[in-house]
Write a structure and sequence with these properties.
Helix content: 25-40%
Shape: globular
Structural class: alpha+beta
CATH superfamily of the largest domain: K homology (KH) domain
Largest sheet: 3 strands, antiparallel
CATH class of the largest domain: Alpha Beta
Number of strands: 6
Strand content: 25-35%
Number of domains: 2
Length: 137
């Protein structure tokens, strides 16, 4: 792959530390969620992954929508990223909830969402590695 852009970020002290991007635009306190025994202060890697995946998938949906000449600019994508025990370690699972504009019928929406799932870099990175469920709402 010939990278068009490379994001760089550094995390210190793991889940209870800080994450900072090389350009300083991202500077976040990290914290373990209460559900995992932490204080719940700060964000966590799963939230960051959910934000990135939902934004990327929404862009991919816009790309395939434009190619099909269908306006999906008002679509919203919500990513739910779960973490849990998997064997000796931990694993992730994702549900992508896509709210399509009213002008898009169910069959067309399903086709666009499936096409977006084929071109989205996050979908390509996770395919075969973690379960990703697509839900159209």
């Amino acid at each position: 792959m010939d990278a068009l852009y490379t994001a760089v970020a550094t995390a210190t002290h793991g889940r209870e530390g800080r994450a900072v991007s090389s350009d300083g635009k991202l500077d976040l306190q990290l914290g373990i969620p209460k559900e995992m025994g932490g204080s719940g202060e700060g964000t966590n890697p799963e939230q960051l992954f959910a934000a990135g995946y939902s934004a990327c998938f929404a862009s991919a949906l816009g790309l395939v929508g434009r190619a099909a000449k269908i306006d999906v600019s008002d679509a919203a994508v919500t990513a739910e990223v779960g973490i849990g025990k998997q064997g000796e370690g931990f694993g992730l699972a994702v549900t992508l909830r896509v709210e399509l504009p009213e002008n898009v019928d169910e069959a067309t929406g399903r086709k666009l969402v499936e096409q977006a799932h084929q071109v989205c870099p996050y979908s390509n990175a996770t395919r075969g590695n973690i379960p990703v469920d697509l839900v159209i709402e």
